[in-house]
Amino acid sequence: MEVIATSLIAVFGTLLGSVATYWIQRSTVRQQEGLARAERLRQERVEAFTEYGGALHNYRRARMDRWHVANGETALDPDALRREVFELRAVVIERGYRVRLLVTAPDLVELGEQAMKSVDVIGPKASREDYDVARKVSKAAIERFVDASRDYLAEIRRANEA
Questions:
Q1: Is residue 46, in this structure, part of any structural domain at all?
Q2: Which tens digits make up the pLDDT trace of 14-48?
Q3: Residue 57's domain is classified under what CATH number?
Q4: Could you tell me which residue, 72 or 120, shows the higher pLDDT?
Q5: Is residue 117 in a domain?
Q6: What confidence score (pLDDT) does residue 9 get?
Q7: Range of 92's domain?
Q8: Please, which domain of life does this record's source organism belong to (predicted)?
Q9: How many angstroms separate the CA atoms of 125 and 96, rounded?
């Protein structure tokens, strides 16, 4: 009888150990999957912010080039430049949609939209003084968006590490 009891205890202990190992491994896998998911989302956000900031910068450059052409300071093809401005604006809007899908902070999305609006102000018919002001304002708006994006990513990282 003692042998049977010892055998049952051994079998029960082995079974209990197997179940505990299974639950621990399952928990570890879930945790690793969660961390991997969070890292993928962070990388997507970094890409989205980088691409949006770059698109804003390129759009701003094209708007400034268009102003220079319209005011006789540069000899580029005005029709080609106008098309480029429209194409780059479409890229900015597209990249802005991606940011809006990946970000839960409405103030950050608003900063991105303000940056685009500030670039829109750089028009070919603006006076030199208005152009200079719009150029400085748009640069500062883009930098505010990039800085806020960096802070947003840092805040999320801190939250994930906690």
A1: yes
A2: 877 777 777 878 877 788 887 788 889 899 999 99
A3: 1.20.1440
A4: 120
A5: yes
A6: 76
A7: 41-161
A8: Bacteria
A9: 27
* Helix H or strand E segment including 119: helix 106-120
What pLDDT was estimated at residue 33? 81
Which letter does DSSP use for residue 124 in this model?
T
Number of domains present in the structure of the chain: 1
Q: What is the pLDDT of residues 90-139, one digit of tens each?
A: 999 999 999 999 998 999 999 999 999 999 999 999 999 999 999 999 99
Does 137 reside within a domain?
A: yes
What's the pLDDT score for residue 55? Answer: 98
Q: Determine the Cα–Cα distance for residues 55 and 61; give it in Å rounded to an integer.
A: 10
Is the pLDDT score of 1 beyond 80? no
- ∠ CA 89-57-111, nearest 5°, is 80
25 belongs to a structural domain: no
Whether the Cβ atoms of residue 52 and residue 96 lie closer than 8 Å to each other: yes
Of 33, 63, 35, nearest to 142 by C-alpha is: 63
> How many CB atoms sit inside 10 A of residue 1's CB?
5
For 73, half-sphere exposure in the C-beta direction (CA atoms, 13 angstrom radius) is 8
CA dist 1 and 6 (Å) reads 9
Return d(Cα 147, Cα 124) in angstroms, integer.
Answer: 29
